[in-house]
Amino acid sequence: MTTSHKIMFSQQNYTELEEFNKSQMFMNNLPNASHGDTCPPEPQHMSLAVILCLVYLLGLLLNGFSLWVFTCRIHKWNSGAVLQFNLALSDAIITPLTPLMAAYFAMDSNWIFGDFACQLKIAVLSIHFNGSVIFLTLISVHRYVSVVHFNRSSLIKRKIFVKKLCAGIWCFLIIIGIFYGWLLPVTTEENHGQCLTIHQTRLTDAYFIINFVIFFFWCILPLTISVFCYSRLASSVSRININSAQGQSVKNKSMRMIGICVFIFGLCFLPLNVVRTIGVVVKKYHPSKCRLMLQLQTAYYACYILAGINCCLDPLIYFFGSLTFHNMLMINKCSTTF
Question: To which CATH superfamily is domain 43-333 assigned?
Fold first, then answer.
C-alpha cells in the first residue's frame, strides 16, 4: 500500500469516526434518552408565554368590567348575584401572577424567583382554579333549586346564608392554597429551578396523591353535580309554559346557562385534569419514557391555557344570569353606538 493510499485510508477512518461520534451525541440528546431514570426539563415554546398573557389580559378586562358592574351598578344583590360576584373575583385574582408565569416560560422554564414567589404562585393558582370550580358548581345548584324547586324554601336562596357560605369557602381555599405551597417547594433539576412541574422527581409521590385528590373532589364530583343539576333543569325547563313572554324568557335564559356551564367544564377543567392525571401516572410508573413525558408536558400546558379561558367565558354566565348585568351591557353598547 502506497503512502498516499495510507493517508487517504486514515482520513476516511477519521471521517467515519467523527460521523459516528456525532450520531452518538444526537442519540444521547433525544427525548427518549434515559439519565438515571429521570427526564431533564425541556423549555417550552415562546408562544406559550404570549398566548398565556393574551388570555389572562382578556380575562382581566372582562372580569374587571364584571366586578365594576356588580359593585357599582347592581345595588340590590340576590343570592345568585353574590355567587356570580365571587366567581368573578376568583377569576380576577390570577391576573397579577401572569407576568411571573410568562417570564418563567420565557426563561427556558427556569425558576429564579425564589421559594416564596413559588409558594405564592401555587397558592394563588389553587385558589383561582378551585374557586372557579366550586363557585361554578354552586351557581349550577342555585339555578337548579331556583327553577326546579321554585316554590320551596331553601338556604341557597337566602342572601345572608350565601354570603356566609362564600366567606367560609374563601377561608377554606386560602388554607388549602397555603398547604399546597408548603408541600411543593422549589427544587433543582438539571441545573434548572423547578416550581410546580412534573420534573420535580423527589415530589413525585406528593404530586401523585394531590392530583387524585384534586381530580376527584375538584373535577369529577363538581362535574357530576353540575350535570345532574342541569339535566334536571333541562327536563324542568322543557315543561315551562312558553305561551307567555316571561315563560319563554326563563326557558331561553336557563337553556343558555346550561350550555355555557357544561361547555366551561368540558373545555376548561376536564382536559387539564385528565392530562395531569396521565402525566403523574407516567412519571411515577414509567419515569424513563422521556418522549412521552415531553408530549404530556406540552399537552398539559395547552390544557392549562384552555383552563385559563374560563376567565373569559364566565362573564357569559353573568350576562344570561343577571338581568341588571345584561341591561348594563346593553346600555353601554347603545351609548357606544350613538
Answer: Rhodopsin 7-helix transmembrane proteins (1.20.1070.10)
